[in-house]
Amino acid sequence: MDIGERPPVEGVEDEASAGQAKVAKASGNSWSPNEEFIKALVEMGVSQNAAEKGLYYTGNVSAEIAAEWVFENIDHPELNDPFQVDHSLSGFTTVRSNTQSSHKMVFVVNDSLKMGVGKVGAQVGHAAIGLYRELEELKRKIAPMLEQWSEDGETKIVVKGESAQALMDIESLALAKGIPTFLVTDAGMTQVTPGSVTILGLFGERSTLDSITGHLKLL
């Protein structure tokens, strides 16, 4: 199966449709990926070739959406082959236009602590569980949001925050917009001092979260 014929990435918004139309007009080697998106994807461990494919087949609209596509197609044997624009494709079949509001979870890591990969993973786990418990308390109010999030593939994004204060500032902005949050304070058993603010978890509509955390780089 051709990469361009893989199943659609879940949770992609209408913004991808605009990017899709724009890129569809490109021909031959005239198409070029957004270099900032390429840099972000490579920093995540995605190869240059896979990053270019991800951006091409998702409309070149964001590193986040391209990363979702790459992980959906991670087992494809041609994923890391040199990229070439495929003229046989009619549109971008891996991009789904979603007419309903898309939701996601975002986890902001306190990058100033320089935690190891395992520590970050554990802290994100704490934040995910804590945030979900918060959502359970609000279940009647946000049940439609949770249902939509589940249908969209339960998107979860991890990004970098500069410091504990930055995480708390983001939390304040989120709460002011009615976004459920969960702030993790570590017990200090390993790597960090007791009481360290490590992770902030947030859940809500993609557009609202992007207005708060969209400027942060992917971890």
Describe this structure in words.
This protein is an alpha+beta fold. It folds into two domains: 31-95, Ubiquitin-associated (UBA) domain (Helicase, Ruva Protein, domain 3, Orthogonal Bundle); 103-214, 3-Layer(aba) Sandwich (Bit1). It has eight helices and four strands. A four-stranded mixed sheet has the order 2-1-4-3, sandwiched between helices. Helix 3 (48-57) packs across helix 4 (63-72). The chain is globular and about 50 Å long. Mean pLDDT is 77; it is low at 1-29 and 87-101.
Q: Tell me what portion of residues adopts beta-strand conformation.
A: 5-15%
The largest beta-sheet arranges its strands as 2-1-4-3
End-to-end gap: 31 Å
Average pLDDT number = 77
What is the third-level CATH name, the topology of the largest domain? Answer: Bit1
**Amount of helix:** 40-55%
Summarize the structure.
This protein is α+β, with helices and mostly antiparallel strands and 219 residues long. Helices cover 43% and strands 13% of the residues. Mean pLDDT is 77; it is low at 1-29 and 87-101.
